[in-house]
Amino acid sequence: MKPLVSVGKESFINDIINYAGCVNIYNDVQKPYFIVNKEDVLLKNPDLIVCIKDMDIAYDIEKFWKPYTFIKAVSRNNIF
User: Which of 13, 22, 32, 71 gets the highest tally of CB atoms within 10 A of its CB?
Assistant: First the structure.
């Protein structure tokens, strides 16, 4: 399984998130991209999870997050 990767403050995707009026849960990280662990994402309890799938991804992202119904993104069906 590939590691989870997120975007930090130095990514143009962070700029897009801000432009859309949202807040990146990792906007305090001074890197463009970095590996995160699932437990940290669960602790941050995001409202929305956006996944960019590549062709050789080893898991279905919806099945990956589905068991964690206590986080807002999952309970509100906000995984894209």
Answer: 71
